[in-house]
Model the fold of this input.
Amino acid sequence: MHHSLQSLACLAALAATLWLPAASAQQYPTRTITIVVPFGPGASTDMGARAYAKAISDDTGQPVIVENKPGVDGLLGVQAFTRLPADGYSVLVSSSSTHTLNPGLYKTLPYDAVKDFTPVAMLYRGIQILVVKGDSPIKSLQDLTDRAKANPGKITYGVSTATTRLAVEMYRQGAGVDLLYVPYKAVGPYVTDLLGGVIDLASADVPTLRPLIDAGKLRALAVTAPTRHRMLPNVPTLEESGLKGAVFTYYAGAWLPAGTPTAIVNRLSELSTKAIRSAAMQKFLNDTGSEAVEMNPSQLAAHQSAEIEKMTKLLRAAGVQPQ
Done:
């Protein structure tokens, strides 16, 4: 009798645990969610993460806090995140730098960009702009190509991240020209050097460059987007400029640790879709010239895999050896 009661109790406990995840997922979240951002405050991913956090908090009535863990191309924060519990209360908001480009940049990563995470949602996409000084003799992308062909290896470009470098690389490989790469630690210094005539060409995102383009201090030659950008309607795309297939966008997304229950992943995916459409996120998108992209977990997983393959090929063709 005692034994069968014990088995009944065990069965009841088992039934409760089997039933719990689905039930708790409907109520999720019931406490504070922490969003980990592997970049410093003020980076566009950080600004986007804060708008996303506000939207989810407004929707669910639960506090959502953002924790910055910057360092080494996002490696430190992402690695720390993989050790957090897979219960839905730790969410990573990161970018294609850590989840698409780093796998091609590093021989060994302290995380697996695919296996260690469960994709939840893409939040937004951004583009790069190729720019020269406002009074540069280079008036168009064709001008740049002609000059680069006449003076191989003489035209210099400055960038500071894999994302900014790849935008120029896509142009360089497509146009078949030889440029001189000048590495920088951050965007501010190379934009200053471009304005000062120290380097000839650079690439960065819309929020960084648009005020300088509008003021005439920089001239935009092309955008890396599939279509012209709403804030820069007069600037052609790389494709329009004759480079077929030259499209390069970076994205930010939300991931959970591998092994998070599917019901929680799906619930956060629904909350994310609502968050993208919220006033807080729309303001961020408008202010930064970013584009909202709604993708469910399986779409983000497929996009990420395809991009890893494409970008790793581009990096190898650029002669970038994994470090």
Notes: The chain has two domains: 32-126+250-317, 127-223. Residues 32-126+250-317 form a domain with the D-Maltodextrin-Binding Protein; domain 2 fold (CATH 3.40.190.150). The radius of gyration is 23 Å. The chain has a mean pLDDT of 90.
